[in-house]
Amino acid sequence: MTNYKKSGWHFNTGGISRRAVLAGSATGMAAAALGIRPAMPQSSDPVKIGFVFPFTGRLASYGESAGPGVDLAMKMINESGGIQSLGGAPIEVFRGDDQGDAKLASSEIERLVAREKISGLIGVFSSTEAVSIGTMADQYEIPFLSPAWTTAKAFTIGSTYSRTFNLTGESFATGGVSMLKYLNDEKGMNAKKVGLIYDGSEYGRGVADLIKENLEGSEYTVVQDLPYTAPITDFVPQVLRLRDSGCEVLMAAQYYQETVLLLRAMDSLDFRVPFVGCASGFSDARLPGSLGSAIAERTLGAPVFGPVAVSDLVPYEPLQAFLDRARAEGYTFGSDGLDVNWFVLGAQALFIYKAVLEAAASRDGKDINDTLLSIQIPRGSDELIVPFYDPELSWEETGRPLNQVVPYIQWQDTEMKMVYPPDIAAAEVKL
Questions:
Q1: Which residues of the chain have pLDDT under 70?
Q2: Where in the numbering of this chain does the Leucine-binding protein domain appear (predicted)?
Q3: Are the beta carbons of 146 and 123 closer than 8 angstroms?
Q4: Are 9 and 111 in a shared domain?
Q5: Domain that holds residue 10
Q6: Are 160 and 175 members of one domain?
Q7: First CA to last CA across the chain, in angstroms?
Q8: CA–CA distances in Å: residue 146 to residues 121, 245, 336
């Protein structure tokens, strides 16, 4: 049982255990085999949640993995009885494709508000969108809950309805600097000259600025500060500048697609230095497949380290229970399947809405947002499947999530190994 606290009173809702999710899967498959359609709650109309994400275009891979995660979470919630405080109302999710573009996101949000009468939104995707249109949430009095954007600038736009639960740029930056210092101080890496490369958008620039701020006045020197404008197809000019700078270690904040292209360019120029990624693209299970086996063996052995928002390598019970259910449903992950990070982040958004709707006992956007502002979802509860909050997930009024921690993996023999922090490490760092 998970205990939710709001305005001095408590609302209790049953959690979904690992045994229960597997049993639910088995029951559902047996019913399907007999031609029996599982009963859906009929006591109330659905609670409508919008989901605006890139499903086509350059960033489509994010929606392609997050979408099925949302779908599975919706199935699990509805199979377990829907929203009990609303008479067993099921959740229904309506998608909008923004291609990672703020103008498209704005029009899709307006459509979902006007046509579907949504009570809340999963989104927006990018940091640029969060800064430019985040206040639409306040305009419509509908909460925006993002599994994606990271920029600290979005906490300064004056919105009390827009928030993220992804690892923030602040967490990526401080986590990357902590990893850099750990490698030098504890593992003998001896690399103090930093080459910094990043997407020049709101997201990348925000992380890079925080990295520089955290390194200022220390024994580390940023010898190359290199933003670029995406989309980009050839990183050879950037790699030449990094190589010529004399950097001894690279740090980067960029999307997965550019990470693949950057590593290919480094391989073509035979440029190898340790790489501390400061974005989830460096811990994406699809990297070896996208690079090809030969390039992956050479480049990922540089060594390359990446922050982990979500990984099946993390020994966190609620996450493992959810992934067990996903595999029982036929989902596959890795280079030939979905990205587990974005699959879980998508699902987490809907599980948060489930918890909040139960506590709010309302479909009204303002009531839901008020509950989001006050709720605390503890680490270890079945509704908190992401492993990077301790002791609980909660938010400041600005939308800033509290209590984040950042684990790191290292690519070893083209496989991810958890190496930091030491208390959850499954392998030793290899330099």
A1: 1-43
A2: 46-377
A3: yes
A4: yes
A5: 2-167+312-393
A6: no
A7: 44
A8: 8, 37, 26
